[in-house]
């Protein structure tokens, strides 16, 4: 699970993404990606420490999705390097990312409504005893994973996913990722379209993941949610990182300014 790295020292220049030179689980150095003439990512330097929640924010078209897909192994990078526990790695497919312990929970969750919780959690990775499915082993493992994450709102792990609320579905998708020994969980807009109580459940789940020593990278447009759970915020602007900083060094106002202009003005916009 790993020790939680310390935050960057006060006074480090704004815009620096090198917050965790040592101890970062995932590090990007000078990462670039283009699609034909379009430069989607430019010189991205980012550290994602274990046991912390890093929020990735930015306007539509800022490059968030491209960056996440590069980390998830969907897009190969054109420049720079990706390091995992300090060692360079090459991610050519989602299978490569998963083998390292990188699991992505996309906004659509990729759950099958006609299957129950256990079937969804083991879909494509079913456990067998000889030629038959080992239902007892799968139920035990699913129960243990949900219990470790304090997911207590589902009535039965044999419930059809179609019967679950939005928050419960998110919890199942996250539990599926964690069950396969995830060390980094990427969550794409995890609270989108959820009500107040369901949002609170998902944010609590995010906090529990980091408390287990798992690195969490949350992509979100909801800054209120971001400031509730994030330890660090990385702001993207036109394919570059405008700034990466501990959450205590930013406010919603300054973050909005970074998202819309790529910089913070000199005026003091700290919120009380």
Describe the structure in brief.
The chain is an alpha/beta fold. It contains 8 helices and 12 strands.
Question: Explain this structure to me?
Answer:
- This protein has 272 residues and is an alpha/beta fold.
- It has a domain at 24-112 and 183-261: Rossmann fold (3-Layer(aba) Sandwich).
- It is 30% helix and 26% strand.
- It has helices at 64-71, 94-100, 117-121, 135-148, 166-179, 196-211, 223-229, 252-261; strands at residues 24-35, 38-49, 53-58, 79-84, 87-89, 102-105, 128-129, 132-133, 184-188, 215-219, 232-237, 240-246.
- A 6-stranded mixed β-sheet has the order 6-9-10-3-11-12, with helices on both faces. It has a 4-stranded antiparallel β-sheet with strand order 2-1-4-5, with helices on one face.
- Strand 7 and strand 8 form a beta hairpin.
Offer a few descriptive terms.
disordered N terminus; 272 residues; six-stranded mixed β-sheet; alpha/beta; Rossmann fold
